[in-house]
Amino acid sequence: MRALLIAGNWKMNPATVAAAAGLARAVKAGVGQETTVHIVVCPASVHLSLIDQILEGSPLGLGGQNMHWKTEGAYTGELSAAMLVDIGCTHVILGHSERRHGMGETDRMVNDKLMAALGVGLIPIVCLGETKDERLGDRTEAVLLTQLSGSLAGLEPEAMARVVLAYEPVWAIGTGLTASPEQAQAAHAFIRGWLAQQFGQATADHVVVQYGGSVKPDNALELLSCPDIDGALVGGASLKAADFLAITECGRQAARRKSGKTH
Ligand code: PGA
Fold it and tell me: What is the pLDDT of residues 156-212, one digit of tens each?
């Protein structure tokens, strides 16, 4: 069975070092040594170093929210994959819709970043998802196909097995609108079917595919219990420790359901 992965994408929040440290301490205390689900926090890059120190001794992973594909050089304002590893990161979010749609990030760039991340042993969380117009125009699967084949181009099955995908319908991000469990499961099954075609069933069965888009404590259990949903990428609700911890608890319950245990 795939272990569930719950990741908190803090985006450009919280505003101060003190608030970010407080949030990290509260999440660390709440998670304790629990490892049934894998949990990662992705703070702003200026907070990564401090939060890495705070998380010491905890099973929590640490993720960057973006990186450049080049290894070093004259790229003002950018971060390399090796810098993220050096500072203690285990994961990196790539191709988030706020970067694809807000910063002009293309599948080609995501693919270059993916290769750079894998090259230094980071676990990439590659985001995909359709806009509202694309869903209404019945183009969800076509958009996912383009993003999957572009972002994951050139990967061997062994490398694919080290990649996490996050299906995040753009219309559900930060809007309070969540894909229904049926809509989300259908998209996840489509993604897994494509993975099976491209990389073989064993690899497809191994790849963790998270759902993201207004995941909250009150909708997480239903979403996470879907057979092809293997975790959540949580934005707004990851900024309140109690809400994020409640979502991780939903992850534990969903994992028990999926393994057939009733308690
Ligand atoms: P949201 O964000 O939970 O606030 O909708 C999710 C994301 O952008 O990863």
Answer: 999 999 999 999 999 999 898 889 999 999 999 999 999 999 999 999 999 999 999
* Cβ(215) – ligand 1 distance below 6 Å: yes
Q: Which of 234, 239, 244, 250 has most ligand 1 atoms within 8 Å of CB, for mutation?
A: 234
Task: Decide: pTM greater than 0.85.
Answer: yes
Domains in the chain with CATH codes: 5-259 (3.20.20.70)
Tell me the torsion sign for CA atoms 45, 47, 48, 49.
positive
Active site residue 168: yes
Is the CB of residue 129 below 6 angstroms from any atom belonging to ligand 1? Answer: no
- What one-letter code names the amino acid at 211? Y
Annotated catalytic residue 96: yes
User: Tens digits of per-residue pLDDT, 96-152?
Assistant: 999 999 999 999 999 999 999 999 999 999 999 999 999 999 999 999 999 999 999
